[in-house]
Amino acid sequence: MSTPAEPDRAVVPFTLPGWDQRLHGFHCGDEVDVFALITQRYLIFLDTSATPEQMSAVVAALQPERAGRQPLVILTHADYDHAWGNAVFAPVASDGASGGALPAPIIGHALTRERLRSAEAAEELARRLAEQPRFASVRLIAPDIAYTERLVIDGGDLTLELLHTPGHTPDHTVVWIPSLRLLLAGDAVERPWPYVHSADDLPTLRATLARLAALGAERIAVCHGGVSDPALIAANRAYFDLLEERCHAALARTPTLAAQAGDLPGEELEAATIPYAEALQQAGVSSDEAQSWSYDAFHHAALRATLGWLAQSGG
Ligand SMILES: [Zn+2]
Fold first, then answer.
1. Which of 143, 131, 150 is nearest to 77 (CA)?
2. How far is the CA of 98 from the centre of ligand 1 (A)?
3. pLDDT of 109 higher than 60
4. pLDDT greater than 60 at residue 169
5. How do residues 206-220 score in pLDDT, each as one tens digit?
C-alpha cells in the first residue's frame, strides 16, 4: 500500500465582503482557513492549520503587525487541520527542548487541552505521519490556558468572547465579537453542512446551531467554505430539519432501517431518505461548486446520525 506524498498547502490571504480591516483570513489550500485578528493589545491567531510550515507562512505574512502586540493563539478545536501547526508557538521547555519561532500563550477549551494530550492524538499523528511526510514537524502542543463555558478577552479596541459550542466535536469553541456582530464559527457552521460524528452528537450540534443563530451575527467566518453571510446558519439548521423529516418518514416505512444504517452503502441510504444531489440543491449549492467537494461522506454520516437519533428517541 502506498499513498502518494502530498505537499503542504499553499497559504493564500483572503478577505470577504464587509469584513472589518482587523480580521485577516488565510486559505491553506482547500484544507482549512485560519484567521488572525489585529487588536490594540494582541495579535491573535485563530487556529494553526495542519502543519507548522503552513502556520509559519501565516505568521510571516503578519510580521508587520507584531510590533507592540502580544501574540496569542486561540484554538477552535483539536482536529488535525486546526491545531497541528501549534509548534510555531511552543514555549521553550524547562527540559531544554526548543521553543517555536513565536512562543505564545495557546488558549482553548479544557477538552481541547485533553484531546491534544491524549493517546488517541499521538496515535493519529503517528498514523498520518506514516502516510504523509508533510506532518514530520508537527508537535502536539496542548493549550496552556483552558476555559470551560465562556472566556472574555479584552484586546483594547475589540472584546472577544470565546463560547463553548460542542456538536461537531465535544471541545469546539467559537469566537463572538459583539461590537462587530462578527462570528468566527470554526467548524460549528460549514458550507454546505457541518460534519456530525454520531447520533449522540446530533442534538448537541443542532442546539449549538440554534444558539449561534440567536446571537444575531451580521458577518460570519467559517473554517471550510469561505462565506461571510450569516444565512448559512439558517441553511445548516434547515438541512438537519429536512433530514429529520425524511428519515422520520423512511423509518415509518422501514422500521429496520436504523439498525441497518451503519452497514448500508451510501447510495442505498440516500435512496431510502434523501439523495445527496437533492440535499445540495436544498442547501443552495450549485452542481459546479459541489463537484470540487466531496461532501457526500458528510451527508451519509448525517443520515446515519439522524436515523440513529430518531430510533433512540422513539422515532
Ligand atoms: Zn476542520
1. 143
2. 28
3. yes
4. yes
5. 999 999 999 999 999
Q: Say what the pLDDT of residue 237 is.
A: 98
Give the model's pLDDT for residue 93. 76
Instruction: Establish if 2 belongs to a structural domain.
Output: no
Within a domain: 5: no
* % of the chain with per-residue pLDDT over 70: 97
Q: Which residues in the chain belong to E strands, given as ranges?
A: 11-14, 23-28, 32-38, 42-46, 70-74, 106-109, 145-147, 150-154, 159-164, 173-177, 182-186, 219-222
115/36 same-domain check = yes
pTM of this prediction? 0.94
Is 80 inside any structural domain? Answer: yes
CA 196 to centroid of ligand 1, rounded, Å: 12
Ligand 1: centre distance to CA 221 (Å) = 13
Q: How far is the CA of 26 from the centre of ligand 1 (A)?
A: 14
Q: What is the CA radius of gyration of the chain?
A: 20
**Cα–ligand 1 centroid distance for 11 (angstroms):** 16
Q: How far is the CA of 190 from the centre of ligand 1 (A)?
A: 9
Distance 81 CA to ligand 1 centre (A): 6
CA of 187 to the centre of ligand 1 (A): 6
